[in-house]
């Protein structure tokens, strides 16, 4: 049997008894990162006085998963195997989806255990989702594609959930605040850990708050859905800055949407 075992996203106590039973049963572990997996097993053995001792740890991640599956023996899955990503539910913005797809297509018995998931934790904590929501995972890092992703995010008819790295969280919220400064946003970092941080406010307030915080840690963001008063064709600051116009004209246009004087905007344009 192939087991997909969710791991704690922060608090070690979030591991389920079912997961612990499966980990003691399996002799082979497939891991997104074997070092992270070994460290987790050491902590679990110590905390719960267990004797989880797999015979082997094998790497199975985004960069080697196709090659791995093409090279294994046909009897490989006759044994009990546990797959674990670094944190949370395998297959949700983590490796695992291809392995499940492979199991389905090759009639391999598998089971997905229930457990920690940062997206659902954020959805419930935000109180922004009454029924439907859209999970977008990590947005693209590419400049033009990232811009499209953010624009699509702002037009979604349901609240949207996004994962974001600490190096990009401020830039993401800044762009959202320029498009719709009053859009309600919930952010949470280090979910379930000792120094968990979370708050909800409009985009502009969230952006100001983030500038005061230590941004280190993984972030999850819930962005409220588009409202009737929000116009898809509204220009934002980035749109104006990209226009091939004289600086004075840009400054005048910017003053219409950011409440700053034309002179302030002009001086900022000169320095950029």
Automatic annotation (TrEMBL):
It comes from Campylobacter volucris. GO terms for molecular function: methyltransferase activity. NCBIfam families: 16S rRNA (cytidine(1402)-2'-O)-methyltransferase (TIGR00096). InterPro entries: 4pyrrol_Mease, 4pyrrol_Methylase_sf, 4pyrrole_Mease_sub1, 4pyrrole_Mease_sub2, rRNA_ssu_MeTfrase_I, SAM_MeTrfase_RsmI_CS. This is 16S rRNA (Cytidine(1402)-2'-O)-methyltransferase. It is an enzyme of class 2 (transferase). The keyword rRNA processing applies. GO terms for biological process: methylation; rRNA processing. Its EC number is 2.1.1.198. SUPFAM superfamilies: Tetrapyrrole methylase. Keywords: Cytoplasm, Methyltransferase, rRNA processing, S-adenosyl-L-methionine, Transferase. It comes from the Bacteria. Residues 1-203 form the Tetrapyrrole methylase domain. The gene is rsmI.
């Amino acid at each position: 049997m192939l087991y997909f075992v969710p791991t704690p996203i922060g608090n070690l106590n979030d591991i389920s008894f079912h997961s612990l039973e499966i980990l003691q049963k399996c002799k082979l572990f497939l891991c997104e990162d074997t070092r992270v997996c070994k460290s987790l097993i050491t902590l679990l053995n110590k905390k719960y006085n267990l004797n989880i001792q797999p015979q082997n740890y094998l790497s199975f991640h985004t960069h080697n998963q196709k090659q791995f599956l093409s090279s294994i023996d046909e009897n490989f899955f006759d044994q009990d195997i546990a797959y674990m990503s670094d944190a949370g539910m395998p297959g949700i913005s983590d490796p695992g989806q291809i392995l499940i797809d492979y199991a389905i297509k090759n009639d391999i018995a598998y089971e997905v255990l229930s457990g920690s998931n940062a997206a659902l934790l954020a959805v419930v904590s935000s109180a922004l989702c009454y029924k439907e929501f859209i999970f977008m995972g990590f947005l693209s890092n590419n400049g033009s594609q990232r811009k499209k992703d953010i624009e699509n995010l702002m037009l979604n008819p349901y609240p949207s959930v996004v994962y974001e790295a600490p190096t990009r969280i401020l830039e993401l919220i800044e762009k959202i605040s320029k498009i719709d400064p009053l859009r309600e946003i919930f952010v949470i970092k280090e979910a379930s850990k000792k120094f968990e941080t979370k708050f909800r406010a409009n985009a502009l307030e969230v952006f100001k708050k983030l500038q005061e915080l230590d941004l280190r840690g993984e972030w999850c963001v819930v962005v409220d859905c588009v409202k009737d008063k929000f116009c898809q064709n509204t220009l934002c600051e980035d749109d104006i800055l990209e226009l091939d116009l004289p600086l004075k004209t840009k400054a005048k246009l910017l003053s219409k949407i950011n409440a700053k004087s034309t002179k302030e905007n002009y001086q900022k344009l000169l320095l950029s």
